[in-house]
Structures are given as C-alpha cells and as structure tokens.
Specification:
The complex is a heterodimer of chains A (about 325) and B (about 180).
Chain A: H1 3-18, H2 26-35, H3 43-62, H4 66-97, H5 113-146, H6 153-158, H7 162-172, H8 174-200, H9 210-217, H10 219-247, H11 251-256, H12 259-286, H13 292-327
Chain B: H1 6-16, H2 20-30, H3 34-51, H4 61-78, H5 80-95, H6 97-100, H7 106-115, H8 119-130, H9 135-142, H10 146-166, H11 174-181
The chains are: A mainly alpha (about 325), B mainly alpha (about 180).
Chain lengths: ~325, ~180
C-alpha cells in the first residue's frame, strides 16, 4: 500500500472517529413520544427550512430554462390541436356515413365536404394557438403554486420546485401530444385523400354536398369497409404509440421511430403507386372496377405509405424534445 | 402529510434505539458538516415516521433506515440548482485548501475530498470505507447490485487519489502519479 492510500485510509478513519455519536437515545425518545415531531427545534427548524426551500425555488423559477417552458407549451398546443382534429374527424365521418344507414338529415346544401374539411383544418390551427395560450396559463399556475407557501409547512418543504413541476407537466401531456394528433390525422386524412381524388376527377359543387357526397358518388359507400378497417387500424396504432410514449420504454415506439420504418413505408408506398395506378387505369380506361384484393392492398398500403411516415416524424420530434429535456 | 399514530411512533422508537448512534454517525459522515448531518438525520427520521407502516420485517430496520437516509441525501443532490450550488461551494472550499492543509485534520480533508466526488460514488465510499459496511450490505442499502457498488468504489477511490494529489498536493508513488495523470 502506498503513502497516498495510507493517508486516505487514515483520513477515513479520522472522519469515522470524529463523526461517531454517543448512543444517547433518551432525549430523542422524549421528543418523539412527546409530540411526534422529529425536529430538534420543533416548528422553528421546519419554518426555516420552508423559507430556505421557497427562496431556493424562487431562484430556480428565475433561472427556469426557456426550453422547458416551450416544450410544455408546444406539447399542450399539439394536444389541443389533435383534440380538435379528433372531434372534427368524428363529426365529419358521422355526417358522411349517415346516408349509408339511410339516416338522411336536412343539411344546408351550401356546406360541401371540401368546405367542411377546410373548416376542420382551420379549427386545428386555431386549436393549436388556443393550446399554446392554455399551456402558458397551466404552466404559470403550476409554477406559481410551487413558490407559494401554504398552511402545511411540511408539504411546502417536500413540494417539487418549478423545474421539476415543468418537467412533470411536460411528461403528463407527452402521450396526449403524440396520440391525439395522430388519431385526428388518421380520421381526417382519408377524407382529404378522397376529396383530392374527386377534385382530380373533376367533381364539383352539388356532388360535394355533405348529404349527397357519399350517396351520389357511391365511391365511399362501396369502399367504406376497407376504409373503416384502415382508419380503425391507424387509430389503434396511434393509441398504442401514445401509450408506449407514456410508458417511456416501448419496443413499438423504438421500432416506429427507427429510420428503417421510414424506408419500409417508402417501399410500400412505391408498391401502392403501382397498384393504385393500375386500378385507376382499369377503372377509367377499361371500365373495370378494382378487385377486392386490390382494394385491401390500397387500404392497408395507404396506412403504411401515408400514416407511418407521419408517426415516424412525430416520434422523431418527440425524441428531439426528450434530448432537450435531458440536456437541462 | 398525515401525522403518525402513537403506535407507529412507539414502534419507530423501539426499532431506532439499538442503532441510534450508528445511524446518526452515518448521517454525519454522509454530510459535509456535523450540523448538516444532524439535519439530514432529522429529515430521514421525519420521512421514516411517514413510511414506517411500509416496513414489514422489524429485523430489517437498520438497512431500511440506511436506505431512507441515503435516499434523502440523494434527493438533496438531485436538483440541478442544488448540484450547481454544491459545486460552487466545493470550489470555494478547495481554492485555499492547499494553504490550509496543515491546519485541518484528516477528517476535514476527507470531507472536502468527498464533497468533490459524484454523489453516488461518495455514498459508496462513505458506506464501505468510512462506515465499514460490507459490499453486500452496501448493495442492499443503495438498492443496486454488488457489481455496481464495486464499480462505484473503484471509481470513487481513484477520484479520491486524484483529488488528494491535484488539490491537496499529496505526493503519490510514481505509478499512481502516472495513473492520476492519465
């Protein structure tokens, strides 16, 4: 053993000797049994610690990283925008699918599906802005509570500081900020694709009316099963991804956030272009409707080619946010 | 927090009495000063009063209380602001350490050096090298495997040597000076 190791060993022994406390438990027992209050100086020490911790939290609030605040606020914005998209998507699908069940309702003929979709998209943007304002309010309220003394001194001492509070809030909206936009996208995207196809086909005005949209074209009614299965699959996947994000450790999230998922989506997308092109050619040139197999391929491939890249993008954005969070 | 029942307080008193001196000593060893150690002990005592209902085996009280104590100490280190303030404090402590080396006893020197270690390495070194727990006991207290404790000990001791050489100017052997330089 060298001189330095001996010195460290001697110092450790000196520290052990110096800090040895006598086994005199009687005063402590008296304090504990007398009041149940473990502090030597009863409430005074506790008050001092509360004041000290509140002061520390005020400093922490002044130095609270902007990244933390922005992260929570934008996540709230995405969650609210996603919620608006889900509500809009459900409402649009309900209205569009009504004629299938022969539940005709009186609708204003001026409201067309493209107008309704544009309204839904505008609602999503407005929802994002409203979410940002809401996020600012929520964060302000939470951090204000973390530096405000309450009647319970012990709770004040143990309460999280502003930074921990902001982290907790950001963690709480994580799943919603991922899941709701994806579910909203899963609901709205098929209608957007459908309207785009109709625009390409030259369909305008009255046929776009919400009441006649489904019935007059017949396209949606004939393909509703395939589309419904694809949408249900996308919604289920979105929910699974959101739950995976909440759990933090999820193989599904890891796989979907990998660049390989994007490559796979591009591969499936190119196959869809081939299958879709052939179906389109057969329908409009030869007058032959696509087979059941082609329709299933288009439905499943549509999810893979259009939806998976969106999931990948959302998860990559989230990974970037987590890196920023870890850097704080 | 709900106040503990008299029965729970009595149970804590009964279990704490045989190990009272030992746990207070450990609290002081984990802290940077004796008053801070006493405060750490009382904070741990306060938490153990709240959690005593979760302890099923009275025989495991000693390790359980050690675990509460180290957990409280770890949480003190966990906030980024606390770490920043600690690092500033440690820097200011060591700035004039070389001049004051002779004036300080070995215990103070060890405390200064421990203050410069990462919290988990300092806990492992204090529990094993100062307090004298075995690696297995230390692993039970900190809730990690024995291999993890050994790793923390090796890294902690190596860092201690570096601190003793670089901060306190203690002469090392030729081989250890080379190790420290690397």
């Amino acid at each position: 053993m060298s001189s330095i190791d001996e010195l460290i060993r001697d110092d450790a022994a000196a520290l052990a000797r110096k800090t040895t406390v006598a086994d005199d438990f009687a005063p402590q027992r008296e304090r504990l049994l007398g009041s149940g209050e473990p502090y030597r100086d009863s409430q005074v020490g506790l008050q001092h610690r509360r004041e000290a911790s509140l002061e520390e939290r005020r400093v922490e609030l002044a130095l609270l990283p902007l990244t933390l605040q922005r992260l929570f606020i934008h996540r709230t914005g995405r969650a609210v925008a996603g919620g608006v998209a889900v509500l809009g998507g459900v409402a649009l699908w309900a209205v569009v699918a009504l004629p299938v069940f022969d539940l005709y309702i009186v609708m204003d003929p001026r409201i067309t599906i493209d107008l309704a979709l544009a309204g839904a998209v505008a609602g999503v943007l407005a929802g994002y802005l409203a979410g940002i304002v809401l996020g600012e309010r929520l964060l302000e309220r939470a951090v204000r509570a973390s530096i405000t003394p309450t009647w319970d001194a012990l709770a004040d001492v143990h309460r999280d500081g502003p930074a921990a509070e902001a982290r907790r809030l950001a963690g709480r909206v994580d799943g919603l900020a991922v899941g709701l936009p994806l579910v909203g996208l899963a609901l709205l995207a098929p209608l957007l694709v459908f309207v785009s196809v109709l625009y390409l086909d030259g369909v305008r005005s009255a046929y776009m009316n919400l009441l006649y949209f489904n019935d007059a074209q017949g396209l949606l009614a004939r393909n509703l099963v395939y589309i419904a299965v694809a949408v249900a699959f996308a919604v289920t996947l979105s929910i699974a991804v959101a739950r995976g994000c909440v759990r933090e450790e999820s193989r599904l999230v890891a796989v979907l956030a990998h660049w390989g998922a994007l490559m796979m989506a591009a591969l499936v997308g190119s196959l869809i272009v081939v299958v879709g092109g052939r179906a389109f050619f057969d329908l409009y040139v030869n007058g032959i409707a696509p087979s059941v197999a082609a329709r299933w391929s288009l439905a499943v491939g549509g999810v893979a080619a259009l939806f998976l890249p969106c999931v990948w993008a959302v998860l990559v954005l989230r990974r970037r946010e987590l890196r920023l969070l870890d850097a704080q | 927090m709900a106040s503990p029942s008299p029965r729970e307080v009595q149970r804590l008193c009964r279990l704490l009495e045989p190990v009272y001196g030992e746990v207070r000593s450990l609290a002081r060893r984990l802290a940077r000063s004796d008053p801070e150690g006493d405060d750490l002990f009382h904070q741990a005592l306060e938490r153990s009063l709240a959690k005593i209902g979760e302890l099923r085996d009275d025989g495991a009280f000693r390790v359980w209380f050690f675990r509460v104590l180290t957990s409280v100490q770890r949480n003190r280190h966990r906030s980024w602001l606390g770490r920043w303030v600690d690092s500033l404090r440690a820097e200011s402590l060591t700035a004039d350490a070389r001049e004051e080396l002779d004036a300080h006893a070995g215990a103070d020197r060890m405390r200064r050096a421990l203050a410069l270690l990462p919290a988990e390495q300092a806990q492992a070194v204090v529990l094993c090298d100062v307090h004298g727990l075995s690696v297995e006991e230390c692993a039970r207290v900190l809730g990690i495997g024995a291999a993890g404790i050994k790793s923390r000990l090796v890294r902690g001791r190596k860092r201690l040597r570096q601190i003793y050489v670089q901060r306190f100017g203690v002469a090392a052997t030729r081989r250890q000076a080379a190790e420290v330089r690397s």
